[in-house]
């Protein structure tokens, strides 16, 4: 492997695990050589329960988008090994990769109760608590990790996430650097440190951190995505586009990647390409509804007002399902466009309906709604 003879290394490792399947270090080394699902399928492995563990491990490593397949493998293994903390952690990781943070958090909490001294994969748990802004839980996790072993990279990453959530980005960087002193190839620390440098507006340091992350693992979509965001901040849109394309290849089912690439296309004035990206995001069950709003605005910029109106209607319907019955202030742009569009079409009834909703929002849009009604 060190000589970069990956095919030869894989062949030798396959012979090794077929001869003695309980050598997990050989399986882990084989995982590091896998570039895609097709590569995995070409391996001539004997059928064994450890082979199933390997498949689950490699699919998680590859961020394999057929997550139901990973969950099926893990479910079958957990029936055979119900007390395995390794499998419990893998199941939590699978839900984390699916961005099902609530279920992932629940599984990590069960894992903590099952193995209170565990630090392996707890840095991923801290990522979930960070995204969900669970300060108390993250504080508890950080204190517990220090008690277990303060010289583990996972502990440093957990503490770094805690300080990042508090907005203390300089202190967060200190702990991510400590993690890297303990393990220079610790991927999470490089990526998370890149995020902190973005928050600190230190673009050069952020780029360096993300580049180190992709050098260690070219499959780390978060680092590619971070590079794209950093170049966007620097207004270097063609560079950003290249990195977002890398991220979408790794996560073709993630609507965030497509939306980011679509926004870059918009800034380059390539509205047709942007629309294609947003439609891909919409087709991948965009949970936040960002794609349909972006589609509405892109069609509006293209002056395709009829199609823009259709998507703005979708935006309002989606928000109505999520809301509590009160008019949302961020509906103003959609309602104002629809009111003006209805007026141009001579649809007085719908024009009045949208204007009345704008009056409920108040503010500056209230005056615009009044002027439309007066006309």
Helix content: over 70%
Count of beta strands = 0
* Termini separation: 75 Å
Please count the helical segments: 22
Topology order in helix (H) and strand (E) letters: HHHHHHHHHHHHHHHHHHHHHH
Global geometry: elongated
Q: What structural class results from the helix and strand content?
A: mainly alpha
Average pLDDT score: 90
**Which runs of at least 5 residues are low in confidence (pLDDT < 50)?**
none
Give the biggest sheet.
none
Computed CA radius of gyration, to the nearest angstrom? 25 Å
Proportion of residues in β-strands = under 5%
Fold topology:
Layout: H1 6-19, H2 24-33, H3 37-41, H4 49-61, H5 67-80, H6 85-97, H7 101-114, H8 122-131, H9 135-149, H10 153-165, H11 169-182, H12 187-199, H13 203-216, H14 221-233, H15 237-250, H16 255-267, H17 271-283, H18 290-301, H19 305-322, H20 332-344, H21 348-361, H22 364-374
Helix pairs in contact: 1-2, 2-4, 4-5, 4-6, 5-6, 6-7, 7-8, 8-9, 8-10, 9-10, 10-11, 10-12, 11-12, 12-13, 12-14, 13-14, 14-15, 15-16, 16-17, 16-18, 17-18, 18-19, 19-20, 20-21, 20-22, 21-22
Description:
The chain has 375 residues and is mainly α. Helices cover 75% and strands 0% of the residues. It contains 22 helices and no strands. It has helices at 6-19, 24-33, 37-41, 49-61, 67-80, 85-97, 101-114, 122-131, 135-149, 153-165, 169-182, 187-199, 203-216, 221-233, 237-250, 255-267, 271-283, 290-301, 305-322, 332-344, 348-361, 364-374. Helix 4 (49-61) runs parallel beside helix 6 (85-97), helix 12 packs antiparallel against helix 13 (203-216) and helix 13 (203-216) runs antiparallel to helix 14. It is elongated, with a radius of gyration of 25 Å. The mean pLDDT is 90.
């Amino acid at each position: 492997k060190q000589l970069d003879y990956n095919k030869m290394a894989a062949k030798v490792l396959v012979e090794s695990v077929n001869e003695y399947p309980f050598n997990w270090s050989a399986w882990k080394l084989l995982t590091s050589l896998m570039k895609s699902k097709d590569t995995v399928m070409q391996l001539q492995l004997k059928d064994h329960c450890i082979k199933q563990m390997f498949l689950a491990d490699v699919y998680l490593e590859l961020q394999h988008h057929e997550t139901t397949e990973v969950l099926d493998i893990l479910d079958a293994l957990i029936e055979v090994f119900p007390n395995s903390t390794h499998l419990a952690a893998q199941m939590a990781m699978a839900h984390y990769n699916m961005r099902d943070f609530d279920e992932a958090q629940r599984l990590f909490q069960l894992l903590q109760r099952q193995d209170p001294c565990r630090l392996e994969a707890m840095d991923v748990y801290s990522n979930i608590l960070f995204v969900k802004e669970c300060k108390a839980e993250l504080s508890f996790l950080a204190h517990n990790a220090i008690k277990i072993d303060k010289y583990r990279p996972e502990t440093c990453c957990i503490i770094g996430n805690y300080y990042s959530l508090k907005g203390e980005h300089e202190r967060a960087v200190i702990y991510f650097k400590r993690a890297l002193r303990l393990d220079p190839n610790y991927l999470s620390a490089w990526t998370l440190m890149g995020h902190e440098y973005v928050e600190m507006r230190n673009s050069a340091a952020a780029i360096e951190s993300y580049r180190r992350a992709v050098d260690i693992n070219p499959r780390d979509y978060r680092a590619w995505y971070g590079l794209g965001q950093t170049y966007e901040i620097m207004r270097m849109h063609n560079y950003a586009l290249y990195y977002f394309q890398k991220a979408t290849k790794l996560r073709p089912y993630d609507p965030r990647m497509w939306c980011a690439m679509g926004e870059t296309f918009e800034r380059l004035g390539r509205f047709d390409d942007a629309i294609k990206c947003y439609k891909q995001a919409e087709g991948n069950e965009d949970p936040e509804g960002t794609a349909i709003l972006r589609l509405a605005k892109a069609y509006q910029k293209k002056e395709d007002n009829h199609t823009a109106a259709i998507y703005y209607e979708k935006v309002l319907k989606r928000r109505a399902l999520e809301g509590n019955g009160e008019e949302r202030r961020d509906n103003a742009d959609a309602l104002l466009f629809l009111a003006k569009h209805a007026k141009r079409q001579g649809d007085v009834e719908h024009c009045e309906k949208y204007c009345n909703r704008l009056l409920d929002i108040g503010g500056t849009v209230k005056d615009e709604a009044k002027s439309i009604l007066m006309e």
